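job 3f2a | input accepted
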Amino acid sequence: MPLATPSVTLPLATPRPVTPHPFNAQILTGVIGVFVAAMMSGLNSRIGGLSLIDMKGAFGVGADEGSWIGSLYQAFELAAMPFAPWFAVTLSFRRFHICVVAIFASLGLLTPHAPDLASLLILRCLQGFFGGLLIPVLMAAALRFFPLTLRLYGLALYAMTATFSPNVATWLSATYTDTLANWHLVYWQSVPLALFSMWAVGWGLPQDPVRLDRFKDINLLGLLSGVCGLVLLGLGVAQGERYDWFNDILIRWLFSAGAALIFVFLLSEWFHPQPFVKLQLLHRRNLGLGFTVFFSLVVVLLSGSLLPAAFLGDIHGYRTPFLAVLGLSVGIPQLILGPATSFLLYKQWVDARYLFAAGLVCLAGSCLIDSQVTSAWMAHEFLIAQTLQAVGQPMTVISLLFLATSVVQPMEGPLVSGIINVLRALGTLTGDALIEHLITVRQKTHANVILDYATNAGAFSRDVNGHVAGYLHSLAERISHQAFVLSIADTYLVLGGLALALIPLVLSLQYIKPPVLNKTSH
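job 3f2a | predicted structure (522 res):
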């Protein structure tokens, strides 16, 4: 009975079909413009986090205040994602995209000139929100404009926003802040990308009719509760570890208020005739189960970027120039491996579920190798594992996108892309927080174990020629370093285990036959 109501309102919930346009070089140029804008948004978020130390120094803010710069950006980016496709359909895809890109780049120009911390935080909130509007429309564009014979290559473009841009961001951050010694470029780098994107979209994509009549039926309650709820939830996750999670009243309030508002949002979306995201679609196995796998996969993918950087930065004091090679070793191969994965998925003998599972095995193998880390490891010791990451990431992400989008009609794309991107952004936030918490807990555990061992071994009973304070300081430092190394190894094991645990779920997804290619396909 609960499913009867959504089926009646389906004609209203699904955007009216627009006139199909033949795929040609002009359309391809326009989609590339959308792709560049999505990459620009992802790079701005990632590079902003990597260059946070330089920004805090430039504005003279401490660690506590500075942590909110990145948290607010991520929270507002998350809050914008479910609503981008709806507004793109309503205001016309081309006009919406050009306006959002222009505002995003303008905010980037203003950010380095913020007069004080309050102004900086406001600018980062706004830029995060408009940046969050850019990534979801890329998937909608790939589903709409690419013909079936090329659609998997369009999904490969979207996948690169998760596999390419986060990994090359380290190199770009190093170039701006260390090589060129100008942290302003962290925000100004979006301007040339924005100019190209606006030109490409303006020239390449067709102008759809503006449908302002849709505002009469807008789910205003869902819009307000969804934006506010996701902002609060995002801030709670991002700041949770710093405030000791639910032991702090601020975190309890952020989570409780955010959860209540999100419940209102989901409830209103379920019954609204013109929703921003159509939750009823999650009854399809490859969407409901597939999105659960996707959320966990995003957490696993952090093993290729977050953990090596954390280890080398803490143990060896590496700055971004020395970490860039690890990011590039995963990011650059995506330019080849992404399309190659799409090519494989078109082969009739390939089952996307097994290709997905093989990718998870690669990721698990990478984590298993890195779990052998010692304090003597340098950057080159991670390269074998990074190679497995470079192979496994496109195999998992593109296979999942194929399995999920194959049960979605092209005009349902705007109703699904918002959900995918919310899960991706929330998965990244949650993964960062969980990894940070796991490292902290395991580091304390290992430190206590090592300290007990040192005590039992008589490390404190020997004569140190009167230099007791210096000896104890050196011992404490060595214990802390070793405990951190062991906590990194534990985290790799947990993420590797999570990757393996996803394999049965992946094999439970519905089999999707590869698209049949023929010479008459257009």
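job 3f2a | Residues 220-273 form one domain.
job 3f2a | closed
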